[in-house]
Amino acid sequence: MSADGKPLGVDDFGALASGCAEAAGVSDADMLSELQAAFETVSVAAATQEEVVGLLAGVLHLTNVAFVPAADGEGAAVAEGQPRRTRSRRRAACSAASNSRRG
Amino acid sequence: MIRSGARSDWFYTEDPTAAEATRTRDAVARAVYAHAFEWLVGVLNGFLASDVAELSGTPTPEHSEGSTLAKLRFIGPLDVFGSERFETNSFEHLCINFANEKLQLFFLGGVFEAEQGRYVAEGVRWPQVDHMDNQGCIDAIEKNPHGVPRLLDQGAQEAAE
Fold first, then answer.
1. One domain, residues B143 and B100
2. How many CB pairs under 8 A join A and B?
3. Are B28 and A55 contacting, i.e. CB atoms less than 8 angstroms apart?
4. Alpha helices in B56-147 (DSSP H)
5. Residue B55 to chain A, least CA–CA distance (Å)
6. CB-CB contact of A78 with A69 (8 Å)
7. CA distances from A30 to A33, B12, B102, B108 (A)
8. Domain coverage including residue B20
9. SS3 sequence, A57-69?
10. B100 located within any domain
11. pLDDT digits (tens, 9 = 90+) for B44-73
């Protein structure tokens, strides 16, 4: 959750900057169900699955921590404020990839 | 921001720049992710092993066939780029090495080219991964008219005439 209480999406994480968050014919919901079924097949308990998701979320949040030069000029400090939203830029990159595919 | 570390019996502190802190952040993220991945491989290997043990009847003695199978069934990286090379290399070694090269080409095609093709089709921004292409080696052996088996055939025929 972000500070304003809204759930975070793909575009809120710098580590997921693949340029395209959606693929035609690929349903994230279906793939999540498939992944959960696969975890169950190999006897990974639901509680452990939650921990895996939590761990991955932790990695994503960690990679969103930005650093800036410290105010006193020595070393660095954690940047304050919300991570920069990059939705519009990503969408542009995504359509560029689609165009080059057609061309 | 000051970070401290310990190495054997002495301590040090340093004040990283923003760029250094960013690199350290990425290293920690990669290490956590890599450990999670290794854990997952371990879970899958453990499941495959226990699955076999169940099929062959538990408990399975260490030396029994079920246990051997359990040890054989695991997930790991495939490296078939193995060539036999001895002081004296026989025709068998040529055949074995050729088979390995063919397997490697098949593996490269399946893993690198097919996967990368899928990434491109889905529009994932993906740096093409260079891999060693062994097509030249295979051509040297099987491509006509100068492939090695062909030349051997030809030589044998000429000797017989």
1. yes
2. 76
3. no
4. 65-72, 91-108, 114-121, 135-142
5. 15
6. no
7. 5, 50, 37, 29
8. 3-72
9. HHHHHHHCCCEEE
10. yes
11. 888 887 765 555 554 444 444 455 555 566
The rounded distance, in Å, linking the Cα atoms of B32 and B35 is 5
| Count of structural domains within chain B | 2
Compute and round to an integer the Cα radius of gyration of chain A: 18
Distance from CA of B125 to the nearest CA of A (A): 5
Question: Tell me, what amino acid is at B85?
Answer: R
Q: Are residues B68 and B97 in the same domain?
A: no
The SS3 call for residue A83 is coil
A contacts of B18 (beta carbons < 8 Å): 67-69, 76
What are the residue ranges in chain B where pLDDT is below 50? 1, 58-65
What phi and psi, each to the nearest 5 degrees, are found at residue A73? Answer: 85, -10
CA dist A60 and A2 (Å) reads 13
Instruction: Please check whether residue B54 lies inside any domain of the structure.
Output: yes
Q: What is the pTM of this model?
A: 0.56
DSSP annotation of A15 reads: G
Q: Do A18 and B121 touch (CB under 8 A)?
A: no
